[in-house]
Design goal:
By secondary structure, the chain is of the alpha+beta class. The protein is 36% helix and 16% strand. The longest helix is centred in the last third of the chain and has 18 residues, at 201-218. It is elongated.
Length: 219
């Protein structure tokens, strides 16, 4: 007879209380990412922002600084980043689908956001949390430009022509090269997926000659 497992109600309740206290003791978004603009330091962690980021901190906006002043906290709108606009030719942006605001923040300009990301013209299917919302380089895409971003068609990716050798074959290729030339191969050996063979007249003549030599050797 299998002995029934006793339910320890007090222990289970204590575990839930500890988990609740741990959750309540976690720092809020407004605490973790608050910034002293005079010293460029985050008070919670004591970390100082990189000097290269100071100019963007003074001129650009965080994502929630933009969302806080918008209707329904910007749900449905498109947002991009300054670094994407400067470094990429293909459109990259987020379409916001859900926002969880930290209401303890003074201006409600902290929290978490979720959306659908389009990176270099390729749109993902699943909704995920927007990362780096605390960075000072977010920009709102105007309404009249949203369709221009959405209508972009990415170029098809070129076919893969070469792949890396398996570990054992790679080691053999490197050893052969070092034995033949006495130096280490400068470039990584790659295995072609397609072998170009030209079937001209000389090719068939050589094949016939090799076949005759094999037949004579066998006799």
């Amino acid at each position: 007879m299998v002995k029934k497992k006793r339910l320890r109600f007090i222990a289970e309740m204590a575990r839930k209380v500890r988990a609740y206290r741990e959750l309540k003791s976690r720092p809020r978004e407004s605490q973790k990412y608050s910034l002293d603009y005079e010293t460029m330091t985050r008070p919670y962690t004591g970390k100082k922002l990189p000097v290269l980021a100071w100019q963007d901190v003074r001129r650009e906006s965080r994502l929630f600084s933009l969302l806080a002043g918008m209707r329904m906290f910007g749900v449905g709108r498109l947002f991009t980043r300054k670094s994407w606009l400067e470094d990429q030719t293909e459109p990259s942006y987020w379409q916001i689908t859900k926002v969880k605001v930290d209401y303890t923040a003074e201006n409600m300009d902290h929290g978490k956001a979720w959306g659908i990301q389009t990176f270099k013209g390729k749109t993902e299917e699943q909704v995920k949390e927007v990362d780096k919302v605390m960075y000072h380089d977010w920009r709102l895409i105007p309404k009249h430009m949203e369709q221009q971003f959405k209508d972009f068609q990415p170029l098809p990716e070129p076919p893969v022509r070469y792949v890396h050798y398996p570990p054992l074959l790679r080691a053999m290729k490197l050893a052969q090269h070092k034995k033949a030339f006495g130096t280490v191969m400068a470039e990584e050996p790659m295995l072609p997926l397609k072998r170009d063979v030209v079937f001209n007249k000389d090719y068939f003549i050589k094949q016939e000659q090799e076949q005759k030599r094999r037949d004579e050797a066998a006799m």
